[in-house]
Amino acid sequence: MKLFRYFPVAVDSIAANKMRASLTMLGIIIGVAAVLTILGVGRGASANILDEVASQGTTRLTISPSTESEGEGAGAPVQTLTMGDVRALSDAAFHPDIVEVVPQYGGSIQLVAGSNNKQTRVTGTTADYAEVHRLEMAEGRFLTEDEIAQMSNVIVIGTAVATDLFERTQVVGESVRIDGEPFTVVGVLKESGNAGFGSNDDSGFIPIGAAHGRIFNVPRYRGEYIVTSVSANAVSEERVEAAERQIEQTLRLRHGLGADDDNDFTISTQASLLDTIGTVTNTLTLLLSSIAAISLVVGGIGIMNIMLVSVTERTKEIGLRKALGAHTSDVLLQFLIESLVLTLLGGLIGIAISYGLALLVQRIPNFPIDLLIGVDALVLAVGVSASCGLIFGLYPALRATRLDPIEALRYE
Amino acid sequence: MADSSALVDMHDISKVYQMGETKVHALNGVTLSIEEGEYVAIVGTSGSGKSTLMNIIGLLDSPTEGVFAIRGQRASGLTGRQMADLRNMEIGFVFQQFNLLARTPAWRQVELPLFYANVARSASRKRALEALAQVGLAERADHRPDELSGGQQQRVAIARALVNRPSLLLADEPTGALDTRTGEEVMALFEKLHEEGLTLVIITHDQEIAERAHRVITMRDGVIVSDSDAATTTASGFRNGLSGAAPAPLPRPVAIEQDKEKMYEAV
Ligand SMILES: Nc1ncnc2c1ncn2[C@@H]1O[C@H](COP(=O)(O)OP(=O)(O)OP(=O)(O)O)[C@@H](O)[C@H]1O
Ligand SMILES: [Mg+2]
After folding, report:
1. Threshold 0.80, pTM exceeds
2. What are the residue boundaries of the MacB-like periplasmic core domain, all occurrences included (chain A) (predicted)?
């Protein structure tokens, strides 16, 4: 095809003006690499969070007390969710779609071992907690039904707690003191490897009875200890909504709420959590996209600058080419292909750089974020940079082809 | 209109540049015709309009007023494409300022007209190197303009003008940057090609070169003040056929009728 004739010309022209070519390409490289990296980080971050949430099960429901809306304690949780509610919800006859109901009462408290101590979030709960929250053990086991029933002084701790208190993780059988009472370590949780969302590395778990009766000074409501939250598992992902309705019904009834009263608790499902996270990450992506757009503009301006600076030289060149017999189409094709070669080359280098970064990031152990490069980001970055190159590369060509050759040759 | 046998036919050509308020009349009613196979020198003071005239003949510039025809075809009626093809195939132009491409090797510069003539790349390289050899620059084929002397640059420009075997060579002071000997060699090359049929129009300030031409046109302030071929400047300005009456300043070599290919093969 005749078009191929212009490639050597374009390549010659690029080779003859290496400085101009590399500066133009630099604009494109920066634009493409910046956009891909920035958007990649955003995507990676949200994918990580969503993975984390999904890995904790999609059938889980979490019930927590609403916050006081008025009066002295406004903002504090309402103290109406109790162990009585937990027992009621555990009745499978009325709640066919709920399988496990797990109460939690947690607070931050000092753990002591020898001369070491550590402020830790300690949660009193039941044996099913491990199942509902998909905990995995590194050492030992989780709390047992027996220990829950007998309110034994046993504790399961996260790896961070273990290393802070004992400088190692094989600590099953060791003793930890809470508020002067000795607790035997029966298990150590697997490290989550994720310092962020949903990590249990820095927590401890004890039988709910021990938390209620001895460790925390827990208030009662209608004679029952209150809890800070209740987790439940629906029988299946499809039955989550039905489970939610069953819980709502029972709790409204038990809390004596009239038809006009609002719920004094909230039920959140993993699905609703995913929704919330989706909204947050969308906002994040939007923010990152604007930053990416700015770097594209910066890259584009770089390209524009260098193209405009070279206009004089190019105008003269076009005058000469026309004087020697070039048709307008010859000139335009040459410039088009030259811009194309430059932008594609720059685009490829930009892509290579961002993929290089992505690979690098994957090699860093425990780096919290993957770099996910989407096809849309790729198209966007290369598209915008290439258009800058094309538009500003063709601009002098279009203008000069309209001139008489001698005028273009004289152009200053 | 004019006699279609003339290669170049100009009638009452003016070129006016608007410089703010004032108008510069670079050409002011020039009437001229040049026959195929002529050897013409254009002389005149600096700024008298010689380059402007030559740019119009070479289809690089358009006149403000007047009728200009090449091979009997009015330039105003030609499309951009046709003009480009004429510039490419028929006309060789040696610019006063050389006009070489920056940072481009000499042979690539010389090859350019062949590229636009769709000559295959292998053949065009060979022909470019031959043209460079003609002007004594075989050794400098890979040099870029900034690695060449002024005279060498001028010779690259000359090689480029000749490479596509034009039938009309327009040279704007082609020996301006050359020493006497190199200048003489270039003139000898031109004259050899002229003997083989090339129409030669040369702008020069050099009296000796002007005297070698068979016809000398003198310009001043945008008009032709004298033309040694008196018959060509009749009142109407249009000559009717080739006038053999005009005595040539030098013995005129017999133009041998040869086809273009052969004529260049000989070089
Ligand atoms: N682009 C232009 N704009 C304005 N004036 C011009 C332009 N080009 C040429 N002129 C004017 O037209 C006149 C003729 O210029 P031209 O270049 O034809 O002269 P010349 O005879 O070739 O001179 P020289 O021997 O110095 O090359 C000059 O007065 C010049 O100033
Ligand atoms: Mg001049």
Report:
1. no
2. 23-249
